[in-house]
Target: Cyclic nucleotide-binding protein
Amino acid sequence: MEAFVNYILQFGNLNKQQTDFILSKAKTLELHKEDYFSEAGKIPRYVGFLLDGVVRFCYYNNKGEEITHSFIDENNFVSDQQRFESQVVASEYIQAVTNCKFLVFSKKAWDEIGNTVVGWKDIEHLILKNCLLKTIERRSPLVSEDATTRYLSFIEHFPGLLSRVPLSHIASYLGITQQSLSRIRKNIR
Model:
């Protein structure tokens, strides 16, 4: 819980009464590896703060291939925020890559926080902006770089994930085949 409170306090000032209220609206959720936090075709149920583990955002392209477009690890928010807020069906999956533990907020709880805690909407906006900037920062170099450089960037941006994430997911994230990733890894050693 302390990690969550420290995270949100980076984006605004809240007193103990406010943080206690926010925490009172949270539940703990544990997922096993490969379980879904959110699924395409269903309305997202939660906004989560990842206390332990790694998740990935993925979808299926028009050829039926699974594409991983981002990873999130500990002490970060996890949500399909736009669809959660508007309560419409998701078009992508959020899947546990490892066993995961979250603090989660239902739509009702999230709205109660927004309607009760003075300044929460501003904090929420800054958190969302931060998450979006991180995603763009991590994805942008992948568009213009060759596969080896993309892999080296992945190692730089996600040093702790290499040993925790299946190579198939990393290859998908990098936009290459698993065989190509194996060759790149072999040539780097």
